[in-house]
Amino acid sequence: MPPGYSSAPNQSFVSATFDNPPLLNRKLWLKRIILIVIVIIVIIVGLKIFLPDNSPNGIASRFVNDIVADKAAQAYSLTTPGFKAETSASDWTAIVKNLSSAYTGKPKSVSPVGSYKTTDAEQAVFEISGNGNEFKLTVKMEYYTGHWRVYNFIASLAS
Q1: Inter-CA distances, 16 with 12, 19, 21, 89, 132, Å
Q2: Which one, 78, 98, 115, 152, has least CB within 10 Å?
């Protein structure tokens, strides 16, 4: 026989001992599964909160909120190249300032009224009220190179 081996049976292999009884082992696995589920839910909620909504309504909402907040550059970045060809960035800044001045200060509310879909485009309608004025803003969007972009909008007094 090689050195270090004996022909006598090893007693540690004959008797079985448990460090954790089976019931405690099940509780440990249950805790791990619950922890994994909680982590997955937190990740999903975090992605929903921190990633922008790129749906037509999400783009329209960001566009309108940027106009209301007098953030011309951010709203301009959501437009199509055709819109940008017709309206320069400096002209767009002046348009946003004019719209923003109509409801000086923070508007009381920006609320979506509805959205409508045609064969190749979508539009969303918002009502903006503040400083005693009420406006209706219709945002028209098209799907351009894999993203929804604003190609036109109409601002009018709400009736």
Answers
A1: 8, 10, 12, 78, 82
A2: 98
CB 66 within 8 A of CB 75: yes
Q: Write phi, then psi, for 2 (nearest 5 degrees).
A: -70, 155
CB within 8 A of 14, min separation 6: which ones?
Answer: none
Reading across the β-sheet that carries 121-130, which strands appear in turn? 109-117, 121-130, 133-144, 147-157
Global pTM reads: 0.61
* Calpha distance 91→33 (Å, rounded): 57
CATH topology assigned to domain 56-157:
Nuclear Transport Factor 2; Chain: A, (3.10.450)
Q: How far apart are CA 25 and CA 29, in angstroms?
A: 6
Domain locations in the chain?
21-50, 56-157
Q: For 44-86, what is each residue's pLDDT tens digit?
A: 887 776 666 667 778 888 888 888 888 899 999 999 999 999 9
Pairing of β 147-157 and β 121-130: unpaired
CA 124 – CA 64 distance, rounded (Å) = 10
Two tokens, residue 7: 């022909």
